């Protein structure tokens, strides 16, 4: 049993969660949503300092980012993570119950056939295509699992059938999500772009914390490519928004859950 007094940061908690063989972390949204969660609160934020209202705000930010079914699947990843943290003693409050999807939202007046352009790096575009191919290949196996499980006449307690159908739903939702992204994607190759040294999608940025003096490098990517474990931050994250279109030598301020932090942009490269 893990001691409740152990201080664990967000990124440490995520690492414990995904490395625990008893937890199911192989879903289509798991890696990207846990990465988004760490990016939102800050990887070094102490997990037990996060309060229910912050989790509610996070849920709303996800709900506003897409269709209700897809948002629900993404938030389910966070529920699972927070539930595990509570059971393992790293949270004193059950934050999972505050992860709720806001269903009654005002509709966007934008026509349904007009979608926002998604900027992707070449690596991100390749990764999405590879994931799409893998998921489509998974379809056949899931259909076979459902067929075999459905042969059990007692469907009331047919856990394999329920699990296979649930996984099929996740796979199909993720396929639709990726296909939508690829239809509206513009591949941005920073090496072929005009060299005005400003931060854009695909740029590598080195920041210096003006309080601690510590330097940290990041790659600015789209939301779908964000991965804090690889220092890939999205252009809509607090740090990403602060550095976009800035140049080396400029000072920025970033709003974080711990307050404002000041950074110096040391280097910008493709």
Can you put this structure into words, describing what you see?
- There is one protein chain.
- The chain has 270 residues and is of the alpha/beta class.
- The chain folds into 3 domains: 89 residues; 70 residues, Transcription elongation factor, GreA/GreB, N-terminal domain (Helix Hairpins); 80 residues, Transcription elongation factor, GreA/GreB, C-terminal domain (Chitinase A, domain 3, Roll).
- It is 42% helix and 14% strand.
- It has 7 helices and 7 strands, in the order ααααβααββββαββ.
- A 5-stranded mixed sheet has the order 5-4-3-7-6. Strands 1-2 form a two-stranded parallel ribbon.
- Helix 2 crosses helix 4 and helix 5 runs antiparallel to helix 6.
Task: Itemize the secondary structure elements and their pairings.
Elements: H1 10-18, H2 30-41, H3 52-63, H4 68-87, E1 118-120, H5 122-150, H6 159-183, E2 185-187, E3 204-209, E4 215-221, E5 232-234, H7 238-243, E6 251-256, E7 259-269
Parallel strand pairs: 1-2, 4-5
Antiparallel strand pairs: 3-4, 3-7, 6-7
Helix pairs in contact: 2-4, 5-6
């Amino acid at each position: 049993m893990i001691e409740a007094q152990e201080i664990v940061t967000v990124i440490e908690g995520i690492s414990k969660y995904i490395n625990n063989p008893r937890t199911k972390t192989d879903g289509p949204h798991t890696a990207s949503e846990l990465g988004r969660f760490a990016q939102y609160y800050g990887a070094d934020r102490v997990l037990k300092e996060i309060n229910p209202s912050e989790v509610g705000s996070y849920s709303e930010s996800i709900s506003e980012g897409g269709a209700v079914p897809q948002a629900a699947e993404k938030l389910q990843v966070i529920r699972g993570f927070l539930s595990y943290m509570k059971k393992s003693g790293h949270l004193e409050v059950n934050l999972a119950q505050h992860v709720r999807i806001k269903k009654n939202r005002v509709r966007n007046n934008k026509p349904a056939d007009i979608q926002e352009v998604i900027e992707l790096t070449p690596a991100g575009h390749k990764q999405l295509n590879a994931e799409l191919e893998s998921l489509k290949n998974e379809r056949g196996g899931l259909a076979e699992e459902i067929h075999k499980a459905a042969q059990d006449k007692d469907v009331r307690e047919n856990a394999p059938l329920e699990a296979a159908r649930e996984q099929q739903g996740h796979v199909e939702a993720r396929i639709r999500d990726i296909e939508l992204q690829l239809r509206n994607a513009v591949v941005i190759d920073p090496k072929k772009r005009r060299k005005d040294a400003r931060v854009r999608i695909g740029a590598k940025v080195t920041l210096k914390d003006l309080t601690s003096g510590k330097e940290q490098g990041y790659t600015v990517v789209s939301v779908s490519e964000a991965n804090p474990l690889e220092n890939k931050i999205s252009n809509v994250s607090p740090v990403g928004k602060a550095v976009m279109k800035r140049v080396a030598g400029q000072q920025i301020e970033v709003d974080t859950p711990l307050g404002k932090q000041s950074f110096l942009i040391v280097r910008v490269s493709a």
